[in-house]
Amino acid sequence: MLHRLGFPSVGRHRRFVTAIAIDAIGSGVFMPVSMLYFLVSTDLSLVQVGAAISLASLVALPTGPVIGSIVDRIGAKQVLLAGNLLQGVGFVAYLATDSFAAVAAWTVLVTLGRTAFWGSYGNIVAAISVPGEREKWFGFLGALRNIGFALGGLVSGLALTIGTQAAYTSVVVANAVSFAVAFVLLLAVPATERSVHERQAGSWLTVLRDGPYRVLWLAQLTFSTAMMVLNFALPVYATTVLGLPGWVTGGVFTINTVMVGLGQGIAVRAMTGRIRWRIMLLSNLFFAASYFILLGATVVGIAVGVVVVLSASVIYTLGELAGGPVTSALAAEAAPEHLRGRYLSLIQLAWNVSGTVTPLAFAWLLARGDQPIWYVMLGLALAGVAIAVWLGRVMPLADAPVTNAAVEAADDGLAAVEP
């Protein structure tokens, strides 16, 4: 079944895949109620809770490159396990947190754990997949996490409906348990080799001097900033600016979840043989088209506005389907194996920068009116188009076609039947 949808054969990596799914469900349960939990379990105001979480993100922001060096030194599996463990400890500590300092401190620990997890995740995926199936694996795991977030969101919706401190506390407990279960499953992940150049002088200098990878980093930054629109801009824009019914936001997330969950593997199969930088360019064009459509939502009535927003979310998700697997696979393959931890930590830094900056930036832009945010995002998408062209000229891997070992084997009549 997975093979027919364009996903890889999981085989001996079932525990890793299961752990990723459990982690996603746990995170999906907690994210929608995170601020509400601290509001009901402490005496802090909404502004204080938001300030504590933002402060924690800023404190943890510079740790990504450090974690990249650690991955190269001791191996990705150890960092992956440590990241999972730190997050679990942080959520257990949340159960006894009742002050601003405690919220900030334990959120720093959770953020460090999350940074460690994602700083090693790409190395693990690169290790368990062959070069001809990298897009396939990154696409599959991305779709799996998307479905996990959606399932977790359904559970959190029940907690929100109940609305009691006990309900929110049960969410925190469930998330802590999910990290414990995932930790046990991740013990089966194959260890990646430690860098034989771990004491070589100038390793970080090598990374920072890699001009083509700096261009890829810019491409990742534009993509990750676009990915923040779904979480931070669209919900506020639809409900507060346009005054649309609350179910529209739920509809947007449902469309995104279904399309990514069922369509990501099919999209990767359709990419096979296509040049990578052109797919990245197409991804930005999809994003630009969705922003352009959203510009028109303010000049129509509520009924038409609902159709406009939902239509824009479909086109926006096409951008995610196209850009996600290619960008992730290219980031892993373009990095020298002995420095992959450092290289991928820069990619994680792009995500962290976007996640730190966009909530405030989007809020400020939305406060300026109903259109400035989409003009800015249109400009960013067009910049992403230019960066994709630039990347194709300076990085040979970006000018290469997407390959799919399983698809090619099937076309040659050599593929074995998946058990």
Structure description:
This protein is mainly alpha-helical. The radius of gyration is 21 Å and the shape is globular.
Secondary structure topology:
Blueprint lengths: L13 H17 L3 H8 L4 H15 L2 H12 L1 H19 L5 H29 L5 H29 L2 H22 L16 H6 L2 H31 L4 H26 L4 H20 L6 H32 L6 H28 L4 H23 L10 H7 L8
**Mean pLDDT score:** 81
Enumerate how many helices there are, as a single number. 16
Ranges where pLDDT stays below 50 over 5 or more residues in a row are 195-201, 405-419
Rough shape?
A: globular
- In N-to-C order, the SSE pattern is HHHHHHHHHHHHHHHH
- Distance from first to last alpha carbon: 10 Å
Oligomer: single chain
Residues in β-strands, percent: under 5%
DSSP strand count = 0
Rg to the nearest angstrom?
21 Å
Return the structural class: mainly alpha
The profile of the biggest β sheet is: none
In helices, the fraction of residues equals over 70%
